[in-house]
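Q: Hi! First time doing this. I have a protein sequence and I read that you can turn it into a structure. Is that right? Here it is:
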Amino acid sequence: MKKKLLFIYNPLAGKSKIKNWLSSIIESFVKGDYEVVIYATTGRKDAKNIVMDCLSRETYDLVVCSGGDGTLNEVISGIMHSEQNTCIGYIPSGTTNDFAYNLKLPKNLLGAAKVVLSGEAFPCDVGIINGEYFTYTAAFGLFTDASYETPQTTKNMLGRLAYILEGVKRLPNWKSYQMEITCGDKVMNDNFIYGMVANSISVGGIKGLTGKDVQLDDGQFEGIFIKMPQNVMDFQSIINDLLKGNLNSDHIFSFPVKEILLTSEEMVPWSIDGEFGGEFQTVNISNLKQAVKIIRNKEEIV
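A: Yes, that's right. Below is the predicted 3D structure, encoded as structure tokens:
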């Protein structure tokens, strides 16, 4: 009896390059002895709903998605809401594809499809923020809205540069949030222009921002919080520290996070895996250790 594979793809992700590879990808799955069921997403939450609906009706040996980090987030959310802990394969076709870097996936779509068939199942941590699941990052503050406010057509034309241009437009309008942050026995009260809880080597296309020893399955996230600079010199100091990997300084706090509580005097917009995640005054984030299985490349990419 053939194994069953559920394949969900976002036809608009990146520069819609999946369309040029779709036939070859499906052919590779069929040659891998899978019966393939295919869905294209048409809007937000489609991938999550497709996963939940399909897994509620029958058993699949593998769920594969192609799109950006947002598509992967939805598929993982669908798995977490279902009763089946089905293994996930990922073919990155978005603009930044941060999480793909963690999995050592090739940028070539057909190459990534082959990893789905030949890679190893890896138990990966998942985050939960106020009841919503996230794959690799939950963040607020400077630049975090660039990914979800940049039009898809601009992303397709300019790629990663589109995020940078959108973020630069926000520099003259620094916004800080008065917050109390509680993590274990650590309590901080200050004005923050940026905060992030992440489980990724790469964030926003920048590698190494979260430190050198990121483990995706250790039950801990990396928390990074940046205080409001008082002047341009302070801001330059922050940039220098980030570039050097100095994540504990006068303006930057970095520490491991298993569970964290953030409270603010006002509503704060949050980005979850690069998509708008809502506005909250109180945020509770927890790590769910090794909650899903996802396929990663066993080989180093040259």
